[in-house]
Design a protein that fits this description.
With 194 residues, the chain is α+β, with helices and mostly antiparallel strands. It has one domain: Aminopeptidase (3-Layer(aba) Sandwich), CATH 3.40.630.70. 38% of the residues lie in helices and 27% in strands. It contains seven helices and nine strands, in the order H-E-E-E-H-E-H-H-E-E-E-H-E-H-E-H. The strands form two sheets. It has a seven-stranded mixed sheet with strand order 4-5-6-7-8-3-9, with helices on both faces. The protein has a two-stranded antiparallel sheet with strand order 1-2. Helix 3 runs antiparallel to helix 4.
Amino acid sequence: MLSIPTLLKAYREGFFPMSDPDDGELYWCRPHMRAVFPLEQFTPSRDVRRLERKGVFRLTLNHDFSGVIRGCAAPRKGDPETWISEPIIATYLHLHKLGVAHSVECWHEGELAGGLYGMSMAGAFFGESMFSRRSYASQLALSFLVRRLRLKGFRLLDAQIINPHLKRLGAVEISHEEYMVQLARALEKKTVFL
């Protein structure tokens, strides 16, 4: 398990942990370009809005953090490797018990269909990972999260490293320097996730 004070200090300085899928070694990542979701501009897709209206899925907060982080760590279709090692899982489970790490669960007919997890610090939410077992489940979780963050006055939703999927969902890349400005502003905000 990682040192909690070290981890929290790292996030405040723009770092986040990842483990190497080949050897399991942990390293600190601080990319030159950072993926973020602009909270005020975020708009879920038409399909997600339709599913939200229909109420086919049920969304919850912190009901199954362990199930979500393990779902995120599971091998994905076409990609058997994961950066979410057992020490990372143990660390975030502990952060969850401390009230710092949170999950959004998406349920379909009583089964965990997808979700996401991350951690909150002042007005910043650091999204760590998401997964889906049914189409749109993680996107519904993201839409639910954004509504929560807006309601609570959060200023930053960090998505770490851009990929085509995050880009389709509305994430944008900003420079490390701009990220640190936004992070400092978010850390000044007095709010809580729950």
